[in-house]
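fwd from M.: "can u put these together and see what the complex looks like"

so here's what she sent:
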Amino acid sequence: MLLLRCPYCGVDADETELAPGGEAHLTREGPNSSDAAFEAYVFLRRNPRGVHFERWRHAYGCGKWFHAARDTATNQVFGTYTAQCSAPPQDLLDRIADATGGERA
Amino acid sequence: MSYRLEQGGLRIDRSRRIGFSFDGRGTEGFAGDTLASALLGTGRRVMGRSFKYHRPRGPVTCGADEPNALVNLGQGGRAEPNQRATVTELFEGLTATSQNRWPSLAFDVGAINARLSRFLPAGFYYKTFLWPRSFWKHVYEPVIRASAGLGRPPEGPDADRYEHLNVHADLLVAGGGVAGLQAALMAGRAGVSVLLVEETAHWGGRAVIDAATDGARIDGQPVADWVAAAVAELGSMANVTMRLRTVAAGLYDHGFALAWERVTDHRPWDDAPRHRLWRIRARHVVTATGALERPIAFPGNDLPGVMLAGAVREYLTGYGVAVGREVVVVTNNDDAYRTAHALKAAGVRVPAILDVRSGVASGAPAAAREAGFRVLERSAIAKVTGGSSVEAVTLTSGETIICDAVAMSGGYSPVVHLWSHTGGKLLWDETQAHFRPDPDRAPLAADGGAAATAAGAATGGLTLAETLASGGQAAQAALTRLGHAEADAATIATAEPEDVLPMKPVWMMPAEATAAQRQKMWLDYQNDVKVSDVQLAQREGYESVEHAKRYTTLGMATDQGKLSNINGLAILAQAKGEAIPQVGTTTFRPPYVPISMGSIAGEARGGLFQPIRRTPMHALHDEAGAVWEPVGHWRRPFAYPQKGETRDEAVQREIAQVRGRVAMLDASTLGKIVVKGPDAGRFLDMIYTNMMSTLKVGRCRYGLICSENGFLIDDGVVARLGEDEFLCHTTTGGADRIHGHMEEWLQTEWWDWQVYTANVTEQWAQVAVAGPKAREVLESLGGLDLARDTLPFMSWTEGRLGDIPARVFRISFSGELSYEIAVPASRGPELWRALRRAGKPHGIVPYGTEAMHILRAEKGFVMIGDETDGTVIPQDLGLDWAISKKKDDYIGKRAQMRPHMADPERWKLVGLETLDGSVLSHAALALEDGQNALGQRRTQGRVTSTYRSPTLNRGIAMGLVRHGPDRMGEVLEFSRVTGGTVQVRIVDPVLYDKEGKRQDV
């Protein structure tokens, strides 16, 4: 059972307090998008074996959405960060590169 | 014949006799006994029968790995099947009955299966019950069902209570043997918080038992003294929590562990929870889980009296029970020699020690010879003879030795379950022929470092000296992981190193066994899986260890292969001509031992299983005789039957009252979400399909919410409370979901918009007053001007109604003149009573959800969850008028532009009218000629809502029909649940007051 630190309230939240939200950093495709772009936005996901940037909501806690960088194979967590950004922060990416030899990020 | 010795037994108190019953006969044991030791002490070795062949069986082990000695424990609300006698502590008044036998344990009709064993090999059920086909339902299935399962399920509710306990610890030490104690001592002294759990009722594990025979010492003290001192020191540390009878059952991700404590199983009269489930978050875990001895596969190894050598020793030393009068020891390692010495010291004859190894001129064998034992090297058992008990063994040399028990030891396998649960990897240790934890590939913690360290016999180091050393090293590793200074190695206790001769793996005895012999070599005792079965599985192509397991049921019994797995793997590997590590192990899954369902449920049963949400007026509805309907977690009145009235009659009366005069509904469960901020209008324009930003303050608008995939997920009335404040009503079940939906978009997509949302559903009590007399009722309360022009349809006002602060919304879900009055939740009952008083002159009555449903169906209003099912878009429901054409975007707009969503062939909402006036079945299908690709009848529509309308005095329905709105007046054929079909005409869904005059008066 995962334990993720909510970057808003600082709590190490048990998985039972959290609701999963799938892949992070999707770009919303609106009425002017192509069929292919819209399909990718709604249906296609990376689902990697390795580092995954994903969305979680501290549903039974402060209620905030946040992002986590987690290795889907080992459950190693490289960090959690605010949901209010469109790309992972650089220091987190550096940390992941250090930890994985830059292979899987 | 087993018997109680005149003296001895470290764990029993001979001064306290304990009465209990087995199969209805009263007998006695001593305080400290297990059920198994007490029964053995009375001379009873047969305690159960095996699953498939109903072979008589006695205990093989002295612990959790026991496959045979399973009994029904307790009676009535405390009855529990499949309890292991070996881990059941004796208490006064215990009642146990044997299982899987009829009519009695001694004479069992099912034992005929053993004679038929030739016809019941592995997988027989896949091959046997195929023909004739008609036999399946009436012959095979009833017979199989009757013979399936061990024991009988308890009847009625569990009389005991259970609880969960949530704890955090720096270090969880799983296992209270000397390694676990050593690790806990060093961690405790370093000041970290330690939780130390031990599965049994005793600290010190096997070392205490062994030391009674071999006189081993720790730091110069007798082992028992060192253990007592360690326990005392740990007990004095405030940062250490210790629990006996608590097994670490599972290790999960990120240091989560479950431990199962048996609190009152041994003193059921105590007023305490029976079991406690510990939910543990540990920063690091030491798995000091010990090792399990392996049986040897020789013909007749399942006869009562054939036991593990370590178990024979533990019954003798721990409980003063000899498992037989003449015990042959058969072994492939040194450890079983301790059993021989212990037996001899207790006055039990050991006719021979059979050692499979050769050249045993030193170490334990040599010492045994010196002590006068007859040690036969390179020797093996060819057969054990006996009926329901051991009578003799015949060796491969041809010699027959008279004996009544056999103590066997096939070596030890470390308990690697916890280590493996979250992916810790194993090494195959050639010298000891077992899998052990690979310290370089530990299960991982959140930071990518090791989550656990193995210690003690669980590492594969089996001697006392190795056990202590690895316990200390585990503590050092754990402290380093926890960021503490490493503990001084000098504080690790020591014992004399032992000179141990290497063991020699023996998977089948004799090695050149005939087919007949292999059919008598048991691997999995409980499920009756033999060497021949595993070999058969391999021949038939079940070569993967996971397939072979399922085909033969090896390791699928209640002991989950603790005893059988390695032996079975080895046989499979041999059959395949591969090495054991190539074959691999099956997956280790939690829990390590069976844990009670009650403890998993904890307090979550009865009223606490799922909290019920009640409106402020709940008690008043109860008084009024409401029958309840669950809606989400809420309870809502379905109807209010009066004396002598059926529920149906009540519903019809309530509807007539709404249409004719006036009635009232508790609408408090409707979701209420406040959306506030400078960007609130802009935000709601994205959330709803309609335009909300243009709504005027004081007005209400019905709105639709779609998912990004275009499908309708909720609806409700939005009221504009102020320039930058809206109140969004949702469906009863949708409040939390829609609030979450809004928050998700606000937080993750439009985080720069200035908007707050708050779910205020429970802060308001809300009552709908509906019917031609509604205005008169409210006006008689006074305080608000509710005239048609002051408060027109789809507007709201605020003030005091009578004495109560209220918001009044003029909205209608019934099609009648209707007001919804919202007051602070605490004033709800007061408002309800006031309305009932004020409405008395008009005969006001409360109405329930069923009347509400029928009223809205008469008006053709859709209901989320009836007309929608996650595949329906608003356009399917004729709600195009509620979709803004002016907006560039809203959630779901792009999806609704996909070709399939605009397909004219989509099933769309229509009214359905049976030609004979009957009521359509729920979800009935509209039939079409021909068949689909699967050979099923084609369909062209389905019923979504169907009721009997008292207003129209016939069945009414709505449904989705292929381009239905273009087919008004067409007659279709619908299926009936009771068989046959019914003719149905497609009509407008609005069946009552099409112009909407009644609500706008």
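replying to her w this: Residues 4 and 13 of chain A are 5 Å apart (CA to CA).
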